[in-house]
Structure formats: structure tokens, C-alpha cells
Amino acid sequence: MKDRIADSQVPPEAATSAEDNERYGFSRFASHPFFGEVNRWLVERVASLGHRFVDLACGPGAVTELLLQRLMDRGRGLIYAVDPSLSELDRARRRVASGLVEFIQGSAENLSRLVPQVDVVVFCNAIHLIKDKLQVLSEIRKVLRSGGTLAFNTTFFKGCYPPGTERFYRYWILRAAQYLRERGVSVLRAEKSESLEWVTPEEYGALVSAAGFVEPTWRLHEVTLSPESLEDIGQFSLFVRGALPRVPLEIGADALAQAVRVAMRDAGIQGGVPRFWLQFIARTQA
Ligand SMILES: C[S@@+](CC[C@H](N)C(=O)[O-])C[C@H]1O[C@@H](n2cnc3c(N)ncnc32)[C@H](O)[C@@H]1O
């Protein structure tokens, strides 16, 4: 297994302690079964379309592991697993120990300087974090061979709320803000522009076409988020920063965790909160 540190842009997260990285990483949310299901759905549609893969924004390696299982079934292949976060790469490295995976520290914005040409780029649960999506999609196109495939998914897009569920999120933030105010912590209104960049599936279609991809196809994949999974996503540092801008991570995560079940009751939702994942596939010209 080889590792490279190829990007000088180390995220602020890299400066926090290993203990914090463990608590505020993505692994807890990623361990819920529905999360494996949505990623497996996408991976299964593209895993047979080549031998050389990029797992872009690999995080703790859940998708890398799914891809690797498919490659091992065939006995060959190579995955470049790319992420800017050293702690997430570290977790991925511990989870996926194989000579078929090369871990690379770096950002999607610089992808063409990080990896050679590949057959497939898989980009799960991260495109909403990208400010300049057209630039990153163009970088992805540069590293794909002709007739190559891009597959991405996200649950942070315009249209992710099945009817009647959006109010849960409003109550969630309201209840978390109330918890913080009671403890003397002031809360700013979350502006999407400073946290997550949400667009519609049709806008993603226009962006991938503008970046030179063809045959874009997408579908909505409905899952039910259990209260436990919502509590876990409420511990993920990038989620806390997006939902409660400029609130210290520890108390922000506490506020989100304790507010989940109260907000479900406020919204009249029992059991779990339905939500759509956007599954998107496009190709480069053959
Ligand atoms: C929610 S996790 C997704 C991890 C994995 N793809 C999965 O689905 O399990 C998002 C990941 O995106 C990474 N990330 C954030 N900004 C990025 C960027 N500009 N380029 C590449 N990765 C980025 C984060 O470090 C984090 O590991």
C-alpha cells in the first residue's frame, strides 16, 4: 500500500486532536446500513466499467471498501483514494489494507495533478461541499479516459426532502439553537453559501454537460434516517459547521444530538425521517 501527500492545502481539521477527529469524523454516520445501501447501489452500476478507479473524497473508506470488494472478485484493478483530510485517510488506511489501493492526500480541485488517467471516478457524499462545481467536474473529466464514467451521489441537494419532512430540519436547528442560547452561546443563521452548496438534479445535469460529459442520468433513492443516524450525522464536523456556523464544535454537536428526538416530535414524525439521495452517472465522449 502506497501513500502520497500531494497537496499543500491541509484543511483546518488537520490541526485538531486525534481524539476530536475520531469523535467528529464521518465514520459513525457511515456505519448505518442505509448508507452502505445507497453507495453500493451506485458502485454496482460502475464497478465493471474498468480497472482503474478514483474514489474521490474517500473519507473513512466505506466506498473504497465496496470498490475493492468488486476488484478482488475480478483479481485485478487499482483504486486511487483521494481526500484532503489526513485523519480520514488514516481511518481509510486502517479499514482498507490492500496493495490495490493508493491513498493520496489532496483536493478535488487539483485532481488532475494527483492521479493518472482512469476509467471511473466515484465521488460519494461530497460534491455538495464543493464551491466551484464546474471547475471540479472539469478536473474529473480531465482524468477520465474517453468513454470513462463519473458516478456521484449526495443527499444535500435541492429536492432532498420528501413532502412533509422539511419541517423536521427547521425544528432541529431551532431546538439546537434554543439549547445553545440557554447555555449562553449565540447562533448565527446558517447561510447555504458559507456552508453547503445545494443545487437541483437538473442543475447538476447542466453542470456535467458544461464540463463536457454526455449521457447524464440520475435517480432519487429514498431512505429512512433513524434518530440514531441523525444524532451521528450531527456529530460530523463538516455538518456541525454547516448547520451551526461559528458555533464551537463540541457544544454544537451536543446541541444537534439532543435536539433530534424533540424535533421529530415537534414535526409529528415517528420512527425515522425519509430523505432522498441523488444518484448521478455521466460519461465522457467515447
Ligand atoms: C461525507 S464524507 C464522504 C466520504 C465517502 N466518500 C463516503 O461516502 O463515505 C466527505 C468527505 O469529503 C472530503 N472533502 C471535503 N472537501 C473536499 C474537497 N474539496 N476535495 C475532496 N474531498 C473533500 C472530506 O474530507 C470528507 O472526507
TrEMBL record:
Concerning InterPro entries, the annotation shows: Diverse_substrate_MTase, Methyltransf_11, SAM-dependent_MTases_sf
Which biological process annotations from GO are given for this protein? methylation
**CDD domains tied to this protein:** AdoMet_MTases (cd02440)
Superkingdom:
Bacteria
Where in this chain does the record put each Methyltransferase type domain?
A: 54-152
| Transmembrane segment boundaries | none
MF terms per GO, please? S-adenosylmethionine-dependent methyltransferase activity
Q: Which UniProt keywords apply?
A: Methyltransferase, Transferase
The family annotation for this protein states: Belongs to the methyltransferase superfamily.
Q: What name goes with this protein?
A: Methyltransferase domain-containing protein
